[in-house]
Q: What sequence folds into this?
């Protein structure tokens, strides 16, 4: 009988210890909740606002450029109306009516190598590809660079991003590549 009473007493002690541990855990959670509420009520410091305001400036710049790029894209699509005709519906072609004074796409040939691309000189065909990508960007297009292996697509893409930065179009830029070539891309970025 004493043995049963002793086991019951141990059981009650363990339950009491669990209750106390749970109460301490609840108290700690309450303290964390109050800290979080307090931090959300406190105004953020200036240093926390800087990245947000810089992001907002970047977004405003992009929005301001959007209207200009859209009108350039419409002019470019209109100038290529005959080429697009077999591939689009008539309702789309009607929207692409010639605009008075719309300038034709001009081919400037090869672009100059961006100043931030150092440790080498881009070849003529790479600079022509860079000029084409910049023209497509200016016209609101989304170019796809597809060359054979070894012709410098990586360098052209790095130069394209550098040229955009020189124009004041900041990043970040997203480059999607297979895992097998990530180290190669990182090496090329460091090299150039």
A:
């Amino acid at each position: 009988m004493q043995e049963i009473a002793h086991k019951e007493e141990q059981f009650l002690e363990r339950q009491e210890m669990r209750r106390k541990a749970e109460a301490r855990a609840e108290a700690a959670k309450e303290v964390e909740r109050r800290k979080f509420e307090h931090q959300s009520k406190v105004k953020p410091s200036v240093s926390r606002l800087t990245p947000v305001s810089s992001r907002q400036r970047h977004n405003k710049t992009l929005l301001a450029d959007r209207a200009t790029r859209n009108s350039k894209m419409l002019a470019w699509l209109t100038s290529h109306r005959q080429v697009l005709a077999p591939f689009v519906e008539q309702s789309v072609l009607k929207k692409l009516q010639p605009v008075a004074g719309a300038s034709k796409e001009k081919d400037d040939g090869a672009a100059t190598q961006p100043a931030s691309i150092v440790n080498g000189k881009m070849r003529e065909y790479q600079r022509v590809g860079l000029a084409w990508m910049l023209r497509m960007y200016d016209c609101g297009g989304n170019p796809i660079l597809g060359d054979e292996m070894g012709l410098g697509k990586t360098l052209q893409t790095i130069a394209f991003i550098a040229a955009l930065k020189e124009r004041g179009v900041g990043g970040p830029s997203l480059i999607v590549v297979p895992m097998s070539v990530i180290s190669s891309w990182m090496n090329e970025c460091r090299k150039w």
